[in-house]
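dumping this here before i forget
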Amino acid sequence: MKVIDHSFVICAYKESEHLEKCIISLKKQTVPAKIKMVTSTPNDHIRALAEKYDIPLYVREGASDIRDDWNYAYDHADSEWMTVAHQDDMYDHHYLEELSKLITKYPDALLAVTDYIPIKKGQIGPRDTNCKIQKFLRWPLKFAALNKSKFWKTRVLSLGSTLKCPCACYHKALLGPSVFTSELKFCIDWDTFYKIARMDGRILLVDKPLFYYRVYDGATSKEWIVNHTREREDRIMFEKFWPKWLVGIIMHFYKNAYKMYD
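structure:
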C-alpha cells in the first residue's frame, strides 16, 4: 500500500493531562507516521513528553491564539499532506492507513476527513445524537460524483459544523501556506472548511470513526459556550448559507448541541 507523504503536528497548550495519550495514539499508527509538536506555552510538561517520545518541538513566540497556533503547526509540516492534532484527542491506529488508501485515488483532493466519536468520562463512545446528525449530513462526501461539487461540499456545511479540524487531513501542496485565514475564534474550522469547499477540488470522507474527540469541562469548546462566543459565531456562519429570518429558526434548534458539554 502506498502511504501519503504526511505529517502529524500536535498543538500542545499548557499542561494537558491528555497530551501523552494523544502522542501514543499517533506513535501506534499502523503505517510509519512523522510527528512534530508546536506550542505557544512552553513548559516542562510539554518538553518532557517531546523528549520522552523523541518528537521535535517548536515554540511560537507571542501570545497564544488559535489561528496563529494552528497556522504555525500547519506551516511546520514539511510534507504534502498534514493533520493538525489536538492534544486532548486521540486517533485510531488505522487513521493514516485508511486516509492513505482513499487519498491516493484522487490527486485533486484538497481535504480528507474521517468519521468521529466522542470520549466522555474517559470512555470512547457511544455515538451521541450530535454525532449521528453530523454523520448523516456528511453523506454526499462519500460519493466521487458529489465530493468535487461546490454545491454539495457547501451543503454539507450548511446545517452545522459537520467536520472537525483535528480529524482533517490538509493537502498543503494544493492549499498553500497558512490555510487558516478566518477572523472567527470558535468557528475557525467551520469557516476554513467553507473556504476550502468553494475551491476547485475534492473533500474526501473515510466513513469510519477513526478519530476520538474529548468532551470535558476543561475543553476550550466549553469556554466558548459559557461566554456566548459560540452562539454569536454560529449565527455568523449560518448567515453565509441562509437568510437571517431562517437563521433564527435554525439557531433555536441548533443550540441544543451545546448541551453535550453540560
